[in-house]
Design goal:
Blueprint: H1 2-16, E1 24-25, E2 42-47, E3 52-57, E4 63-64, H2 70-83, E5 91-93, H3 96-99, E6 113-115, H4 116-126, H5 129-140, H6 145-158, H7 176-180, E7 187-188, H8 190-200, H9 204-210, E8 214-217, E9 224-227, H10 232-235, E10 239-247, E11 251-260, E12 263-272, H11 275-297
Parallel strand pairs: 1-3
Antiparallel strand pairs: 2-3, 2-12, 4-7, 5-6, 8-9, 10-11, 11-12
Helix pairs in contact: 2-5, 2-8, 4-5, 5-6
Length: 315
């Protein structure tokens, strides 16, 4: 019995590490990552294929995450669809609250009906707060967004996101009224967001729209174009997601996924003041990461063991 318990504990340490961290650290680099861009609060680059941290700075520091919040809303929606509790062809009606949410949106009219798939891709591509609210109301129970937020926090704990707290499903900054009701800004860490990204990557539906540059909802004169909030998927190779976020206090934030051959990387950067600088920095970081992984695949030259002694009778 003692041996069985020991083996289980050992397995846990191997999976999550003795310090409770899921990913190990790679240290044998051909060249270290160096970059002049320092305008961020925290950063992390993880090789998900082998479960290794390639680079990090303040990756366990708690920060406001703005619309990176929607990553969890997206995951919960995808899980409900997979379970059969929600269908892409279902039609949902926009509540008064959803139609007045503000921020990034597709301008849902009060009581407007829209298919779940259109709401879902609006949330993923456009980061639409109104579409997110409609889905949260449906999944949490009509008009019961707080129940959905409870689901968000519960799922975060299940994934090991110990330093993440959600108060809203969309990621807008709290209003004065919210603050009086003890509702704060949504917060997380680079590490926690990597855990979430790894789970989201399991869903082809999420990645389908996360990697889409332009799409639309509605038809005819009411057509509304959706453009992805991440230019990385358009401007640089290998990127296929995942989510951006911004408001003034949180800064420009991003969780970027990229795949090259069999290698899968995820980079998280929180709290920059420049969107273009952030994107260039993330591309430089991911490019370096892929180059290091490629260097690992090159067979190392066999070192000579010294001069070879001629065999007997040879000339």
């Amino acid at each position: 019995m003692k041996k069985l318990i020991l083996s289980v504990l050992t397995a846990g340490i191997l999976l999550f590490g003795a310090d409770g961290i899921k990913y190990s650290k790679k240290t044998d680099f051909t060249k270290p990552f160096k970059n002049r861009f320092k305008d961020y609060k925290s950063v992390m680059l993880v090789d998900l294929t082998k479960g290794r941290v390639l680079y990090e700075n303040n990756a366990y520091q708690v920060s406001e995450i703005a619309s990176l919040t929607k990553m969890m809303s997206i995951l919960l929606t995808a899980e409900e669809i997979q379970k059969g509790n929600l269908s892409l062809t279902d039609t949902l009606k926009a509540s008064t609250a959803a139609s007045k949410i503000g921020g990034s949106q597709i301008f849902l009219r009060e009581y407007e009906e829209m298919p779940v798939e259109d709401l879902f891709k609006s949330m993923v591509i456009k980061s639409a707060n109104d579409a997110t609210t409609v889905l949260a109301e449906k999944i949490g129970g009509e008009g019961k967004v707080p129940l959905f937020v409870n689901m968000m926090n519960s799922r975060a704990q299940q994934l090991g996101m110990k330093n993440t707290n959600y108060y809203f499903p969309h990621g807008l900054p709290p209003s004065r009224k919210n603050k009086k009701n003890n509702k704060k800004a949504n917060t997380s860490t680079c590490y926690d967001l990597v855990l979430l990204a790894e789970e989201m990557l399991k869903y082809p539906l999420i990645m389908k729209y996360s990697s889409t540059w332009v799409d639309h909802v509605r038809e005819g004169k009411n057509r509304f174009d959706l453009r992805n909030t991440s230019r990385l998927i358009k401007d640089y190779p290998y990127f296929d997601g995942l989510k951006t976020g911004f408001y003034d206090k949180a800064g420009f934030c991003i969780v970027a996924t990229a795949k090259k051959d069999d290698d899968r990387l995820v980079a998280v950067v929180l709290g920059t003041r420049s969107m273009r600088g952030r994107d260039k920095f993330v591309n430089d970081l991911v490019t370096w990461g892929f180059s290091e992984l490629e260097a690992e695949k090159i067979p190392k030259a066999v070192e000579s063991a010294g001069p070879v002694t001629p065999a007997a009778g040879s000339k």
